[in-house]
Design goal:
Blueprint (H helix, E strand, L loop, with lengths): L1 H61 L11 H29 L9 H33 L9 H9 L1
């Protein structure tokens, strides 16, 4: 009788382990699916923003107006802030990808590392395009700004700076 109770107890433990593992597996699969969806949406947004920055760069290249784009340097400052924000996103994505690589519950077939790698690339592209856009704005405005005359006399330079 004692052996039957032991067998019954072991079978009961075995069934509970299967049940617990199945529930855990369903949660992991759901989390993987949610993560992939969220990261894919983020990647799509980063890619769209990178393309939009390219459109602005092309427009600046084709400008025929003789006015500055950002005489108060407001756009430049905002582009720098955007680059900083994208850099923060990039760093978080790298950390998350590294965490997924170290998570023993995940395998390469889950696709988590792949979507993080794609998002990291999209963030890097957007950062680069924002930098290019910022430089195109600055170059455009610099080309239109009044060029200073060459000074041979320091007093004349100081006088012009004071006025």
């Amino acid at each position: 009788m004692g052996q039957n109770n032991c067998t019954f107890s072991n079978i009961e433990k075995f069934v509970h382990e299967i049940e617990n593992e199945s529930v855990r597996s369903l949660h992991i699969l759901r989390d993987i699916e949610d993560t992939i969806t969220i990261i894919n949406r983020l990647t799509a947004q980063l890619n769209a923003d990178a393309r939009y920055a390219e459109i602005f760069i092309d427009r600046i290249k084709k400008l025929t107006t003789k006015s500055e784009i950002d005489p108060e340097n407001i756009i430049i400052a905002n582009l720098e802030k955007a680059q900083s924000f994208i850099n923060d996103i990039y760093n978080v994505l790298v950390l998350k990808r590294d965490s997924s690589r170290n998570d023993v519950r995940l395998s390469e077939d889950d696709g988590i590392e792949q979507v993080y790698t794609e998002a990291i690339g999209a963030a890097a592209d957007l950062h680069s395009n924002l930098n290019d856009l910022r430089w195109h704005v600055m170059e455009h405005d610099a080309d239109l700004s009044q060029t200073s005359k060459a000074y041979t006399d320091v007093k004349e330079l100081l006088k012009d700076l004071a006025s």
